[in-house]
Write a structure and sequence with these properties.
With 478 residues, the chain is mainly alpha-helical. 74% of the residues lie in helices and 3% in strands. The chain is built from 19 helices and 4 strands. Strands 1-4 form a two-stranded antiparallel sheet. A two-stranded antiparallel ribbon has the order 2-3. A hairpin with a 2-residue loop joins strand 2 and strand 3. 57% of the residues are buried. The C terminus is likely disordered.
Amino acid sequence: MSIRRVSPVLVIVVLCFGSLCGALMQSLVIPIQSELPALLGASASSTSWVVTATLLAAAVTMPVTGRLADMYGKKRVMTGSAAVLIAGSLVVAMSSTLAPVLVGRVLQGVAMGYIPVAISLVREIAPDHLKATAVATVSATLGVGGALGLPLAAWIADEWDWHALFWVSTGLAVVVFLATALLVPHVHDAHPATIDVVGILGLAVGLSSALIGVSKGSQWGWTDAQTLGSIIGGIVVLIAWGYYELRHHDPLVDLRTTARPAVLFTNLAALLIGFGMMAQSIVVPQLLQMPEATGYGLGQTILEAGLWMAPAGLMMLFFAPVSSTLITRKGARVTLAIGALVIGLGYLLALGLMDAPWQLMVASCVAAAGVGIGYAAMPTLILDNVPEDEAGSSVGVNALMRSVGTTIAGAVMAALLTSRTMEFAPGVEIPTQDAFSLCFLVGAGFAFAGAAIALLVPRANGRGRTDAPAPEPVDASV
């Protein structure tokens, strides 16, 4: 078989593009969320699952996809994820009722498993001088995609029928599939093992139940039996799942590896930093769109709010090279702490920059720079401290922890914004300015806590895989 060499830079671009497209699915329907009941002929509580289903599917899938990549090879699994993204996008594009739309959105969430696999693969195939920057850039796309998706989706929905959102995502998915299949080299990175079916089902049931309770708590009521039953039931299932995984000869997630201090504290920091990223994505657009008649609202449309937020998404990408330089000079743990501190600084700046859209854009850019720095450092810490045959699943667990952080952020921000309200019109309650200020303070607190946790990560001992030789590419076929 002839060997086809592909430029490492081109491969890195493909992995970044594929991860970016996967991450776009997070915010694809947010601009039309308020219109979904009329568009799909269902209640607002039912259509809210169009957003939630994707986030839940992504959270559950990331560690599973990572494990499958460790077992069968990363390129094969990424190509499969891209195919799932095509299928999910097509299903929604051709649907006008709730049930098939939910199916498609779940498939789009499943496809986000592409991202942690791409992060672990780029570490293996990038040349030494590009390794840190490549990992940083691919990892940053998890935040960039969500940020850029909002203005892009708002513009498409504003100019065309809402189905156009999903025809565009179908086209992007086809490009990702072809580029991954034809340009990403296949490497000998498979580590045959048995599929832990019980582990997959246990993680899916436990995690979904707990996250549904958290994400729907504000809507159902935090003391409602449905909320408590969902959260507590999910935790019980996850405890039983952990007990099973510790005794399984080929676990989905090796909890002993996850319990290593370097991995454990990195994942805890990921949860807190994920909270910090999502908090600004929720609070700032709402503040931008509040009516000017409130005295503090900025009266922006959904599209305008998205455009004000877009530079923050680009900032995450621009700071990936900065993060790689910091990792080289200061180490990944210090870089992670710096990123969390910058996020907190962005929130504190927002407290004094709430009078104009451009001011909030500046504060958001500062926080986003911190996200770019922190998100890039996390996979480096993980990959330096796990066995090669667990690289995909370990990065997947780290991505899962970020998703848990974003889910918790959504619940906490919703609770804070409804805790301090005023009557704007008869029967219409809206958050006060103090509620938004409180959200920024809480976001800063979580970010600073993330910085403290990051500094608990043990210093590098030289036994990581940073300098391990990259596997030899075989060919560009699946």
